[in-house]
Amino acid sequence: MKRSFLYILFLLLFQFNFAQSKLSWQGYFSYNEIKDISESSTTVFAASENALFSKNSATNLVKTTTTVDGLSGQTISAVYYSETFKKTIVGYENGLMIVINETDGSMLKVVDIINKQLSPSIKKINHFMEHNGLLYVSCDFGIVQFNLTTLQFGDTYFIGDNGAEISVKQTTFFNGFIYAATSNGIKKADSTNPNLVDYQQWLLVNSGDWSSVEALDTELIAINSAGYIHRFNSNTFVGFFQLPQPSTDMRARNHNLFITIPNSVFVYNNQMVLNRQITNAQVLDNTLNFTCSTAVGDMIFIGTKEKGLFTSTLAGASVFQEITPTGPARNNIFSLDVSPNALWTVYGDYNTSYDPYPLDTYGISRYNTSGWLNIPYSEVYDAKSITRILINPKNESQVYASSFFSGLVKIEDDVPNFLYNEKNSGLESITYAGPDYIDVRINGNAFDKSGNLWVTNSRINNGLKVLKTNGQWQSYATSTILAKAEDVSYSNIAIDKNGTKWISTNRDGVIAFNESTNTFKKITMGADSGNLPATDVRSVAVDTKNQLWIGTIKGLRVLSNVGSFQTEGQLKANPIIIMEDNLAQELLYEQFITSIVVDGSNNKWIGTSDSGVFMVSPNGQETKYHFTINNSPLPSNSINDIKINSVTGEVFIATNKGMIAFKGIATQANEDLNNVYIYPNPVRPTYSGTVKVAGLIDKANVKITDIEGNLVYETTSTGGTIEWDTTAFGRYKVASGVYMVFISAQDGSETKVKKVMIIR
């Protein structure tokens, strides 16, 4: 009874946490890599890397489920829908199981497999098979029984030699026996045997390495790891057809057997007569890789590794259609940029040593009100390993993408139209590999206030370049400040109000340059050389108080005033010291910092390589948020990049397993009060969030009164937006009615009056 109560309590807490989080988070996931599919009589369920979607064939309704809804950001390895229990069960490579209740959308995380005293490398869930209310979970160590009524685990079967762990790929029920395809033979056991935990009750039917076993009406079919299909003849499995490739999936549905290999799907009837073979060229092209297939009614569904889910009629009378929800091309977004009306993402990368090999060919993605646009590699002039994307702040239709191998791609009106490289611009190739080797490594990029585009060109002597508004290139010799410029790689650039460029490097800390005096300076390790904790700097950002925030692979430093570039010979950065448990400690001590961005209220959003995201106050003394996979919808604690929409305050966080956005309110302040607006308005009874007053100037005084003039809330803005929780100074919820919002500038030079209606 106590255990059941704890399960219920956990479920309620889980629902509550994510009901709250859904008010603040939005997911932007890729659904292109299908890991597994399942089905009901009307609906197909597809699992991508760490998200789900379903499509109802009767209503054509497509539903998505992500970490924002409660899924884990870990990699999914199996999915199963139980029509009897109206539940979707999701299995993960790390052994986690999540049970989703169709009736109310609630989720139960089941961690029993994760908690088993076994090597983490063998906890992967491979397959689910339902029989008599029990779910048989095939794992890389054996089989686990899960009761779909009580939602609790039962016995675990270790069925290897002498009870050893063994990888079980798939199980099926046939003529009273459970058959298991394993890495060391096909084994069977009487399903009514009460002692199946005894490995000796599992009899070896065939030896060898097997990928699948499935019952098809009166037939029992198995496929070995070499792709050889076998039929059971009451005693043993006999091979009868060699597939051209090893199979990735086999399942029986609607008296048909679907066998999937990377380039084909074979559809057999229940007499094992081949009815249809579907090749990847028939679905799209011969570069497509199939992962699984199934049927719902008279429709066949094929999952792919690159392009999501395709469907057609089982009889083959129509062409295939892609039914994948739109999203970015990949989940591992390396870098992004956002403007008030568009979001751009790129997927090229390099390792911690700035090595881009193996080079990738992922292209670029854009998201706006019309949806996602994925620009393939073939349309970006074959630019490889694109690591940065930058929107022109003066012209949103113009975008530049940095390739860490091919140069700089110019995009206008969503169409790539030029590649700047070593042949047609001031960009240069690294030369250490010889004159015939071309490798133009462009990474950091930033526009100055005059509209000139500054970029870093790694591993050369003239590592800082500018593309001026007149189309001319100019180079600056970083070799004057760097001992071995040809060995240096650069990360990002930040430009301050004085036009000084602050550039993060992998081995020389931060270098700064101002072209008005043609002067370089450096901040590096050592008390007399800049006081950084490491010379490898991954991110720099200038805040609204003209401080430079420096993120290194071993912690954080702050230069108190960027103006010191003009006045001091040696620049020095300092740690932020905070009090924690009555002890003085360094903020983000030893953290590998990957990204720093400043919001409209001068808060700092700091991404790390393995500890999630920190949001700290303007002076760093208060950590307002620390988001991780354990307390938020973050799919991963490994943060690649963070950017903020200055108008909406939405904070986009790109991880190696997907991108989510936090709906913040720290928007940039406006120049006047002409565009003040309130949302939502009216506030309806079903709404449980806060009311936002947006379009404010900085330090605006905001007073909210009822219609009779009684003050219920007052605050001063920091940035462009404030929130009101619809209470009278936090004491009680205000009643239904019209409320007046009085806004005035700090000096009284501007005023504005708005109304908001609240309906309880």
Automatic annotation (TrEMBL):
InterPro entries: PorZ_N, Secre_tail, WD40/YVTN_repeat-like_dom_sf. Keywords: Signal. It comes from the Bacteria. Pfam families: PorZ_N_b_propeller. Residues 44-202 form the PorZ N-terminal beta-propeller domain. This is T9SS C-terminal target domain-containing protein.
